[in-house]
Amino acid sequence: DNHFGKVLRINDDGSIPLDNPFINTPGALPEIWSFGIRNPQGIFQTEDGTIFENEHGPRGGDELNILKPGLNYGWPAITHGIDYSGALISPFKEKEGMEQPLYYWTPSIAPSGMIVYEEDLFSEWKNNIFVSNLVYKDVRMLSLDENKKVINEKILFKEVGKRIRNIITLSNGELMLITDKKDGQLIKVKKI
How far is 185 from 183, CA to CA, in rounded Å? Predict the structure, then answer.
């Protein structure tokens, strides 16, 4: 009935894809793809169609999710974070019918941009998820196993020392980090 806490899926021309999960659900908005999302910051669709999304939790509980059509990701009924006042938002971290995050951060890192590295230039990074963040001013590289479960987290680019708002892959396979604030920068990551 509204767009709050939801990820929408529309075609380039603004029309609604006919295979959206709620297209034929009375009372539902047909553009909704998934729901129970708190504050999405980064989203990336891989070559195989997997949609990764990261979001700010409240105080802790920042999430990385694989978005699938029609699924409920739980906010605010379940969370791994607490309110800014310290009060519980919900006593539940899981409930039937609600998806668990692929990965979560407590304390909060304030995730921002995100990519899955699919290029060959940095072959050792291929298929890893890169999440820029605002609190620790670095990039988190998450390695996945064959079942798309996070098996390792590595901290990169700490030396930047600024809030990294976004990360993108350039056409030649290099990375670009984008910082914010008045002195924002574009920082290219090259192979030497």
Answer: 6
**Paired strand residues for 158:** none
Compute CA distances 57 → 35, 51, 133, whole Å. Answer: 15, 19, 13
pLDDT in tens, the chain (192 residues): 799 999 999 999 999 999 999 999 999 999 999 999 999 999 999 999 999 999 999 999 999 999 999 999 999 999 999 999 999 999 999 999 999 999 999 999 999 999 999 999 999 999 999 999 999 999 999 999 999 999 999 999 999 999 999 999 999 999 999 999 899 999 999 998
* Dihedral sign, Cα of residue 153, residue 71, residue 7, residue 31: positive
HSE-CB for 117 with a 13 A CA cutoff? 24
Q: What is the pTM of this model?
A: 0.95
Round to whole Å and give the CA distance between 133 and 165. 7
What is the distance, to the nearest Å, from the Cα of residue 120 to the centroid of all Cα atoms in its chain? Answer: 23
DSSP, residue by residue, 1-12:
---TTEEE---T
The three-state secondary structure class of 158 is helix
Contacts of 157 (CB under 8 A, 6+ apart): 138, 139, 164, 177, 187, 189
What is the edge-to-edge ordering of all strands in the sheet holding 103-105? 40-45, 51-55, 62-67, 103-105
